[in-house]
Amino acid sequence: VGDWNVRRQSMSRLATRIGQVLIRADLQDPMSGFFMVRAPVIQENVRRLSGVGFKILLDIFSASPRPLRFRELPFTFRQRQAGTSKLDNAVLWAYLLMLIQKLVGPMIPVRFIAFSLIGGLGVFVHLAVLWPILKLAGDEAFLAGQATAAVVAMTSNFFLNNIITYRDMRLRGKALLWGWLSFVAACSVGALANVGIANYLFQGGHSGWFLSALAGILVGAVWNYAVTAVYTWRGPKAA
């Protein structure tokens, strides 16, 4: 890798090792963007490509139902003279999403996967805000603390989704404020649906607490994703 800095080398090695686990070939550099491929290979696999990120070589190899023949010609990168590397945290995130989609199949949208992962992170944000409030103000502050933690978690989720999940439709300026308001409104309804479904299943004896909670979470997640995809991020107009 020539004169790459330590961080760049580490990120590249990690991405390469993860990719090698997925593909059906011993490619030394599945992350490479410098390659040639026969047209029939693309034509027979085009509908299986994820189209996520820009690691097309890995996408092709992982999409093919049969092993592909290949030959690698090694070369050493010299130190960059101009421009900056595209390999940053956002690119690695897109790369990870592509790998996840390859594992779960095309039936689940990759944006929904990202949205759900960020939603899971929001749980930790919620608890991280609620815990110190209860420690400082006591249990009588639970309602106010819960509301505050919910707004902070939803705000965190909104900005992360805006930066990562909808990176290509990122909201800016005034659209960012209106997007946040619509996101909080949609997620508030989703939270009510979550609690309502879970409570109905549990209190009605239809399932235990775990399955009831899981069903509520799933309904809330699908609602939040579907509504915010339509009203918060509206495609090219949002950029």
How would you explain this protein's 3D organization?
The protein is built from eight helices and no strands. 64% of the residues lie in helices and 0% in strands. It folds into two domains: 6-104, no CATH class; 110-238. By secondary structure, it is mostly helical. α1 packs parallel to α4 (89-104), α4 (89-104) packs across α5 (110-137) and α6 (142-165) packs across α7 (174-203). The model has no long low-confidence stretch (mean pLDDT 79). It is elongated and about 65 Å long. It starts with 5 loop residues before the first helix and ends in an 8-residue tail after the last helix. It has helices at 6-22, 39-45, 56-63, 89-104, 110-137, 142-165, 174-203, 209-231.
Strand composition percent: under 5%
User: Class by helix and strand content?
Assistant: mainly alpha
Instruction: Give the overall average pLDDT.
Output: 79
Summarize the biggest pleated sheet.
Answer: none
| Alpha carbon gap, first and last residue | 36 Å
Helical percent range?
55-70%
User: How large is the radius of gyration?
Assistant: 22 Å
Kindly state the number of beta strands.
0
How many domains?
Answer: 2
SS summary, helix count: 8
- Poorly predicted regions are none
- SSE arrangement, N to C: HHHHHHHH
- Inertia-based shape: elongated
